[in-house]
Write a structure and sequence with these properties.
Largest sheet: 2 strands, antiparallel
Radius of gyration: 18 Å
Shape: elongated
Distance between the termini: 28 Å
Strand content: under 5%
Number of domains: 1
Number of strands: 2
Strand order of the largest sheet: 1-2
Length: 85
Amino acid sequence: MQLSDRHRQYWQKNLRITGILLAIWFVVTFVVGFYARELNFTFFGWPFSFWVASQGALIVYCLIIWFYASYMNRLDQEHGVAEDE
């Protein structure tokens, strides 16, 4: 099957946004969690590193999912492959 330029552009944009969001996920999950151990002060009765690792990461994950869904909906409409509601 031959892909048109429009299909290639769609796929390249899809891969680019997926790569960027995976990089953000990696940083939030591993890099921030690793360095959060050094945050040794109490925040609402719990160590601040606990809040960063458990609460902050969940918020970022939800934002990643929301952003990906809205971006892909726009991209689908732009390239004419959107599902009818």
